[in-house]
TrEMBL record:
SMART domains linked to this entry: LRR_CC (SM00367)
Annotated protein name in UniProt: Uncharacterized protein si:ch211-214j8.12 isoform X4
InterPro entries listed in its UniProt record: Leu-rich_rpt_Cys-con_subtyp (IPR006553)
Bias (Acidic residues): 488-501
Protein encoded by which gene: si:ch211-214j8.12
Gene source species: Cyprinus carpio (Common carp)
Residue segments, region Disordered: 1-30, 480-501
């Protein structure tokens, strides 16, 4: 058998690979299976008894075999990926099958559903065979140490997406990723308890590589649970100021970090920056505002160049038509020049506004890990949000908190994003009817809505929710029973009468594709009579 040979990714091969990806190897579940799909299913069903049996008995523990090509070496990478997905979904993936299918043509590898199979030997095999990976998911693989992760990721220079959620990833791994994975755009280190928020700082500041400018998505919820909360807020603020291309961020302390940046309270972070050996946040803020000013100035200079070109054309026109000019033509030219002058005056005002810039805004469009009391600050620092995950339970520790007042604050906060949010996830402990005003403030453009912890209070509030969000394609509602049951049959009859009045004007969600309603209620017949 020939040894492994890595094919260099030429532009022609890249174009062919992209064309192949456009052709779906998998068919709709309700539609007929293609010949390719049937062949892959047959391979998966016979993998253990036929394809992997001989290898498992004779070669799997032989060191030299890791360099030898197996029976699937001629399959395209897309088919290998699909075969791995089928094996994973049917719980047929074994260590022997992985040894046969880990080949150089793989560009995407997900082992999250088979994390128990991931060990140091398998990582060594991936390191040797799969050096063209663009996406790697090792979520939940706790059998490999941080040192093994460092060795593996040191060979993955083409990675664009990496998930290490629930692993033993630490700051050493993050440092290796920054040095060896310059194309990385998405990183998921959620639930990495060994990793502290300060351990993410190499993503934004590390000598001699100052920053990873490509990173646009960072998921880091539930990391460093024993870490000082102030340090976590300072770390998030540092990432926000030093990674201008960041569009998706999920971290505890994000809302507090936005409030810190908005109020410029950088003095409380000086101890943290001194201890971590990174620049002061006030210096990072000044640098960021200067960079934003330069960007605005470059746009203004481009506008001025266009204005100068326009004036040159006017002068040329006047010189050519001087002998034939008349009063009406002069009036038209003067009007044209006056309009251009007004544009220059506007540019001057814009320039003065840039010179007076005294705030920083981010490019974040997707945020998670927010609490209600920081929503206003997040709106100031992140004005382009499209996806928002908000936990209102964090500010409801005291049972005496008025949920109606909390809902009013929520409505004001969400009103800032009216017409721009496409996805909203809320954890709220009040009545469903109390959320309706907040959803009316922002729900007209929502495509996805998830509500957790809300309390049921009849049918009308659910109908009003549907009225407020007519464009939904996905709706998930987890309803809890109210503290007090509905009292008496009279109230039930009144509610039924109101429901009958709404029958003539029932709301409609024509684009809905996914609906999940979980009703946790011991007396469900009282709230939702059959």
């Amino acid at each position: 058998m020939p040894l492994f040979r890595q094919l260099e990714p030429t532009p022609e091969r890249e174009r062919q690979r992209k064309k192949k990806r456009k052709n779906d190897w998998t068919e709709d579940e309700d539609g007929p299976s293609t010949l390719i799909s049937l062949c892959l299913q047959s391979l998966a069903e016979n993998m253990k008894e036929m394809w992997a049996k001989d290898y498992a008995q004779k070669y799997m523990d032989q060191y030299f075999f890791r360099y030898i090509m197996g029976p699937f070496s001629s399959l395209p990478g897309e088919l290998l990926e699909e075969l791995l997905c089928i094996l994973s979904s049917r719980n047929l993936l074994t260590r022997a099958a992985l040894h046969l299918l880990l080949l150089p043509q793989l560009s995407c590898l997900s082992l999250s559903s088979a994390c128990s199979l991931v060990n140091a030997n398998l990582c060594s095999l991936i390191q040797i065979r799969c050096q063209n990976l663009q996406s790697l998911d090792l979520s939940g693989a706790q059998n490999i140490s941080a040192s093994v992760l460092c060795e593996l990721l040191g060979s993955q220079s083409r990675l664009r997406s990496l998930s290490l959620a629930g692993t033993l990833c630490d700051q050493r791994v993050i440092s290796v990723v920054c040095r060896q994975c310059p194309k990385l755009k998405h990183l998921d280190v959620s639930r990495c308890l060994v990793l502290t928020p300060a351990g993410l700082l190499p993503l934004s500041y590390q000598e001699p590589l100052v920053k990873n400018a490509n990173i646009s998505s960072l998921l880091a919820l539930d990391i460093g649970l024993a870490e000082n909360e102030r340090d976590a807020v300072a770390a998030v603020a540092f990432l926000l100021l030093s990674l201008p291309g960041l569009q998706r961020l999920a971290m505890e302390g994000l809302g507090q970090a936005c409030a810190l940046i908005q109020n410029k309270q950088f003095e409380v972070t000086e101890e943290f920056t001194s201890r971590e050996g990174v620049p002061l946040l006030k210096d990072m803020w000044a640098k960021r505002t200067q960079e934003d000013h330069w960007k605005d100035s470059s746009l203004l200079s481009t506008d001025r160049e266009e204005s100068f070109t326009l004036e040159g054309k006017i002068d040329e026109y006047l010189s050519l038509e001087e002998s034939q000019t008349d009063a009406s033509d002069s009036t038209d030219i003067n009007e044209w020049t006056r309009t251009s002058g007004e544009g220059c005056e506007k540019d001057g005002c814009r320039s003065r506004a840039c010179n007076g810039r005294d705030s920083v805004t981010t490019s974040l469009r997707d945020v998670q890990g927010l609490s209600l009391d920081t929503l206003e600050a997040v709106g100031q620092v992140c004005p382009e949000l499209r996806v928002l995950s908000l936990d209102c339970l964090q500010s409801n520790v005291d049972d005496n908190v008025d949920s109606f007042e909390q809902a009013a604050v929520l409505a004001r906060g969400l009103g800032r994003f009216s017409g721009q949010l496409s996805c909203l996830s809320l954890q709220f402990a009040g009545l469903l009817s109390e959320l309706v005003p907040a959803l009316k403030a922002t729900g007209s453009h929502l495509l996805s809505l998830t509500l957790e912890g809300v309390k049921a209070d009849g049918h009308i509030s659910l109908l009003e929710l549907i009225h407020a969000c007519p464009r939904l394609t996905s709706l998930t509602v987890h309803l809890d029973p109210p503290r007090n049951n509905l009292n008496g049959e009279d109230e039930e009859e009144e509610e039924e009468g109101e429901d009958e009045g709404l029958l003539s004007n029932l709301p409609c969600i024509p684009h809905l594709r996914s609906l999940t309603l979980n009703v946790i209620c011991l007396f469900s017949q009282q709230f939702f009579p059959g």
